[in-house]
# Entry
Amino acid sequence: MWDISVTGHLSAGQDSLTAAAREISEEVSVSLGYSIDIKDFRFMFSFRKEQEVNKNHFDRQYYDFFILRKNGLNENDIKFQVSEVQAIKFVNINELNEMREQNLLVERDECYDELSAYLFRI
# Structure
């Protein structure tokens, strides 16, 4: 299934922005002649999810979404770690919504709703 983001977990003592920069550097490297810097990220929204796995275990996930904005970026500029990522695809918002309707995305409807709202604000 397709996902809309690079994801990861925080290391001890790490904030979510630093983790985002680390994860994008680990999973996809952008070859534009300079490194990705924390100042290139913009906070989008936070999302919390709690799910009962069984009566003795709750899975609590906290998502902080950032957007990395880079002009002139195309698929050939991105090299990904094959153990983490199988493919990369750029889509516009209409294509993303079609993929959602066809159940081609990892199930995170609340996040996609927030992303759509964010993209239409800017």
Q: What stands out?
A: The chain has one domain: 16-121. Residues 16-121 form one domain.
